[in-house]
């Protein structure tokens, strides 16, 4: 049996994006943490049944947050609360559950309070979590997100961040009470020395296989640019594009 040596636990340093602050919970966050779960029980139940069941009172919330601190140290589960930096409002959280093997993978889960949805916060937090997951010390080779057919908005957030749906696999023991889940995945991008956003478009035909690499020097969304690139390639080539698009967000140097 191969024993995988775990890397050190990630530093508990806040992660800052243009509008948000993501950081591990502390004891003082219990009231805000409890309030969102208590207000959103029915909505969170399908995707987070264990958390909803565990947090019935404010004291429960305190115990759960204490457990998250221990989980962070043991690298079992890495949970980050999400705050709006300017207002200080607590919005929700995002977590990574690693599977420690030679090729580390991690599953990401996230939720926002209902009044925080529709502002792009989930997208912003997810993109930061992707960078966090791929970087050392976690160094995941693949990140997964389990979405639910009853929550198409969450699936759309994952796909806009570059995640792609995996073929559906039936459960060995189907759950009659659980909604149908959709697994999306994002693989760690190829290393680049530029530190800029990188787009890799794989395409192949019966005659040839080729790779197109485009270096983007700007931040922000790239979906529109990607669509333009694909259209130009189709217009210039007689070969049918049947490859997969991988969007890799790299921080600026």
TrEMBL record:
Residues 20-189 form the N-acetyltransferase domain. Pfam families: Acetyltransf_3. It comes from the Bacteria. GO terms for cellular component: cytoplasm. SUPFAM superfamilies: Acyl-CoA N-acyltransferases (Nat). Gene3D superfamilies: 3.40.630.30. InterPro entries: Acyl_CoA_acyltransferase (IPR016181), GNAT_dom (IPR000182), Ribosomal_N-acetyltransferase (IPR051908). GO terms for molecular function: protein N-terminal-serine acetyltransferase activity; protein-N-terminal-alanine acetyltransferase activity. This is GNAT family N-acetyltransferase. It comes from Hymenobacter cellulosilyticus.
């Amino acid at each position: 049996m191969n024993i995988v040596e775990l890397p050190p636990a990630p530093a508990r340093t806040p992660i800052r994006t243009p509008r948000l602050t993501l950081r591990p919970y502390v004891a003082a966050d219990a009231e805000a943490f409890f309030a969102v779960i208590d207000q959103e029980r029915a909505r969170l139940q399908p995707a987070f049944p264990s958390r909803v069941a565990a947090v019935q009172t404010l004291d429960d919330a305190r115990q759960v947050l204490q457990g998250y601190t221990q989980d962070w140290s043991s690298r079992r589960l890495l949970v980050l609360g999400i705050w709006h930096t300017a207002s200080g409002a607590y919005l929700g959280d995002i977590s990574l559950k690693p599977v420690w093997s030679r090729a580390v993978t991690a599953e990401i889960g996230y939720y926002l309070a209902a009044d925080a949805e529709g502002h792009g916060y989930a997208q912003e937090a997810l993109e930061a979590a992707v960078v966090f997951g791929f970087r050392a010390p976690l160094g995941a080779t693949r990140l997964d997100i389990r979405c639910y057919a009853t929550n198409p908005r969450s699936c759309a957030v994952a796909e806009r961040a570059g995640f792609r749906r995996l073929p559906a696999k039936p459960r060995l023991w189907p759950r009659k009470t659980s909604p149908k889940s959709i697994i999306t995945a994002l693989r760690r991008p190829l290393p680049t020395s530029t530190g800029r956003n990188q787009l890799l478009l794989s395409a192949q035909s019966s005659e040839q296989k080729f790779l197109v690499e485009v270096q983007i020097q700007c931040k922000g969304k790239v979906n529109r640019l990607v669509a333009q690139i694909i259209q130009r390639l189709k217009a210039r080539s007689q070969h049918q594009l049947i490859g997969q698009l991988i969007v890799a967000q790299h921080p600026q140097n």
